[in-house]
Amino acid sequence: MILGDARPIGLFDSGVGGLTVVREVMKVMPGERIIYFGDTARVPYGTKSSRVVQGFALQDARLLMQYDVKLIVVACHTASAVARDLLGKTLPLPVLGVIEPGVRAALRATRNGRIGVIGTRGTISSGTYRRLIAAADPEIRAYGRPCPLFVPLAEEGWVDGSVTREVARTYLAPLVRRKVDTLILGCTHYPLLKEIIRSVMGPDIRLIDSAEETAGAILRTLRDRGIENLSGSRPEHRFMVSDIPHQFRRVGERFLGCRLESLSRIDLDSVVP
Ligand code: DGL
């Protein structure tokens, strides 16, 4: 009997946001074991310089490698934008980010060749989305817009209502004016705000949920490399964070869409110097 590769998939993020990616991975690959690390003691990454985020990302990935993961997913757009290539070159295992899958889906979706990208300041100012879109098709126009307030609004659970609507209108107005027909949700938190974003952008907008696209890319990578878990047994996941802030479990379970089993705090500096 072939049982495939039972080693876990490792995912990391600056905090709670990457749980939106885990949620999609669990849906698409219910048999895969997950080890998640959220760097809640150092969140946010989106406001920090590329150099600092690269250092954090390397340390986060090295932590996951101690759990014999078969694949690392950078489940954070900011870290993917500035550190995925570095990790891919440095580490001896496949490293997937959340940006390329969203870009591929947006290129397929757009009809008028005008794509909007929203994310943290770090993600948008890195220029990674623009670069990848231009490299794939120089005719396509990409318009980036940082929307930093969406992160605390999603964590507070303010996913509708007048305050969030006003914030969304203000942030998204330039993209409406540019007549983008496709919008990449380039931040872990934004899928929670999909409905309000759609209502501001209009019913015809094609929203690209990077978490969904990334889950598809992970599955293809596991299959291509022959490292899927085919055992059929129910996996036991593990969630680690560098701090357990107030409300973490409540917010995390909302992002994940189910109970956060086996949650523990680890002291990153003592585990990965
Ligand atoms: N996870 C981050 C991202 O997707 C958002 C939160 C942060 O700034 O750390 O870019």
Describe what this molecule looks like in 3D:
It is a single chain. The chain has 273 residues and is an alpha/beta fold. The protein has 2 domains: 9-97 and 212-270, Rossmann fold (3-Layer(aba) Sandwich), CATH 3.40.50.1860; 100-210, Rossmann fold (3-Layer(aba) Sandwich), CATH 3.40.50.1860. 46% of the residues lie in helices and 16% in strands. The protein contains 12 helices and 10 strands. The protein has helices at residues 19-28, 50-65, 77-90, 99-109, 121-126, 128-136, 150-156, 162-177, 194-201, 210-225, 248-256, 268-271, and strands spanning 9-13, 34-38, 71-74, 95-97, 114-119, 141-146, 182-186, 206-209, 238-241, 263-265. The strands form 2 sheets. The chain has a 6-stranded parallel sheet, sandwiched between helices. Helix 11 links the parallel strand 9 (238-241) and strand 10 (263-265). Helix 1 packs parallel to helix 11, helix 4 crosses helix 6 and helix 8 packs across helix 9. The longest helix is centred in the first third of the chain and has 16 residues, at 50-65. It is globular and about 50 Å long. The model has no long low-confidence stretch (mean pLDDT 95). The chain binds D-glutamic acid. D-glutamic acid (DGL) is lined by residues 13-15, 17, 43-46, 76-78, 119-120, 123, 151, 187-189.
Notable features of this structure?
273 residues, alpha/beta, Rossmann fold, 2 domains, six-stranded parallel β-sheet, four-stranded parallel β-sheet, 12 helices, 10 strands, binds D-glutamic acid
